[in-house]
Design brief:
206 residues, Rossmann fold, 2 domains, 7-stranded mixed β-sheet, 7 helices
């Protein structure tokens, strides 16, 4: 008797791998968002699938369109008094949310839908210079006026309060005597561009 066996060879390179989908929230220019777009272009397992904004004039929307990333605009009613934003994220199979210059407080329904899956970047070394109204140049001006010798960025999880979520990572830079708030801001932006995309990659890939 002769036994004939079958041998199947699978070429797994042709199989479609489902990517983890990430949404970005932005309110303004979107420079951090664009660095994130660039970082994840062609990524094998992570896809920036959606950009949302509370500001229909935000240039971040145009940046997203330049990278063929779908966009959506919502208002205060839709965010705080309905499930519109949560439903939109779930319908898009979003697994992780990134705040990149988003100025509104994240509501409870969004926090519950994405527990420990929402991150933010703050342009200072928290817990210093955090809280409502402390964003952008307001932070850098306060840092300079108070004579700080260093500043930096804080990447943190988002909770129900401004800038109080658990810290994930911080990076620092020195402030030299006589430096202006604009000069400090430039240093901090470079830290943001260097560290935020890679930290997102680490978190999403876990």
């Amino acid at each position: 008797m002769v036994y004939v066996g079958w041998y199947f060879k699978y070429d797994t390179s042709n199989y479609l791998r489902l990517k983890i989908k990430v949404a970005i929230f932005a309110s303004g220019s979107g420079t951090n968002a664009e660095k994130i777009f660039q970082h994840f272009q062609g990524h094998p397992s992570i896809d920036i699938a959606l950009l949302l904004s509370n500001n229909h004039k935000a240039f971040a929307l145009q940046r997203a369109e330049n990278y063929n990333i779908p966009t959506a605009v919502f208002n205060r009613q839709q965010l705080y008094h309905s499930n519109y934003v949560v439903d939109l994220l779930l319908a898009s199979d979003i697994s992780f949310v990134v705040l990149a210059g988003f100025m509104w407080l994240v509501p409870q329904n969004l926090l519950k839908a994405f527990p420990n899956k929402i991150v933010n970047i703050h342009p200072a070394l928290l817990p210093k210079y955090g809280g409502k109204g402390m964003y952008g140049m307001h932070v850098h001006q306060a840092v300079v006026e108070n004579g700080e010798v260093e500043t930096g960025i804080t990447i943190h999880f988002v909770d129900e309060n401004y800038d109080e979520g658990d810290i994930i990572k911080q990076a620092k830079c020195e402030i030299n005597p006589g430096e202006t708030a604009d000069e400090v801001a430039k240093k901090v932006h470079e830290l943001e561009y260097e560290h935020y995309p890679s930290t997102i990659e680490m978190l999403v890939g876990d």
